[in-house]
Amino acid sequence: MSIKVEDYYPRETFNKMKAFADQHETPFVVIDTAIISQAYDDLRAGFDFAKVYYAVKANPAVEIIELLKDKGSSFDIASIYELDKVMSCGVGPERISYGNTIKKARDVRYFYEKGVRLFATDSEADLRNIAKAAPGSKIYVRILTEGSTSADWPLSRKFGCQTDMAMDLLILAKQLGLVPYGISFHVGSQQRDIDVWDAAIAKVKVIFERLKEEDGIVLQMINMGGGFPANYITRTNSLETYAEEIIRFLKDDFGDELPEIILEPGRSLIANAGILVSEVVLVARKSRTAVERWVYTDVGKFSGLIETMDEAIKFPIWTEKKGEMEEVVIAGPTCDSADIMYEHYKYGLPLNLASGDRLYWLSTGAYTTSYSAVEFNGFPPLKSFYL
Ligand SMILES: *Cc1c(COP(=O)(O)O)cnc(C)c1O
Asked: What positions does the domain Orn/DAP/Arg decarboxylase 2 N-terminal occupy (predicted)?
């Protein structure tokens, strides 16, 4: 398998990023913020009626927060630390949602004191905390969705509750003096099966109708989470196709009078904007006759590539070396045998690849810097540069 850069970046953009990369020691991620800007515009064009809450965990760089703030984005925040960071960039609390369903009561209070009034929940204990610490706030309940097998990075099992419990929670929210505001779901990150949104939206519709008919509660918002695709080796439909299909599902269920729609993209906005540049430390074989080579690089699972866990995300890897390709195992530089990125999925790299050659991991703008360990084996966190 050989990777064509043009499948992932306009040639000019890639050349610009590579020229920058050539002047720096590996490993690092270089991010072209113009790509993020374009991805944001494309998402807005696809879903012109929706509000975008950027999921900050994908990449919390100040450069990205400020870019998206200036473009009018809101922010999906998961901790008091992300909150402080985003607010210190000048984002007001009316553009923030506390989207983590797992939170301490005192952290809810902290958000409330900073002015945040929109909270996700999926359990009674959390809801009661919110009622006390953030009285009168708007509540949306996250429901469980299917789709964990077609998402490359599932997010569903840990979060969300069943439909009946979601209704119970929204009724309780009202009794506790909160505003039962809407429903959220996340179909799983890098979700390749668009039909999963159909099933999720249908579930939401049932909740909207039953709460209205049985309890007189009129919900106003659907938060459709993230899950939109980035470009990795396993190809997906285009974002336009996602938008067309998902809008059709929404209209099938809700007609032309859509409730407020929120999207929380992370990966799809950022991943394609980044290239992780690494260097080959060693190329080795495990026996005199072994066909398979091991390629050890100066970046690994603990320095930004944790999404290679179970080889879930298959990043395209490009190298300048040309020539005959053969299968390799690709592993990181640390003293941990979990630090193997690809062993079962067969990457091919040129036979003449040697120590000191560079590997370019494409589409690595999201979920790399934010996942990097701080000092494992003494290696520093993954550096990043923003063009
Ligand atoms: C991580 C996360 C997102 C972003 O998901 P992507 O698949 O990266 O777009 C959105 N919403 C919530 C609640 C999340 O936890």
From this structure: 36-271
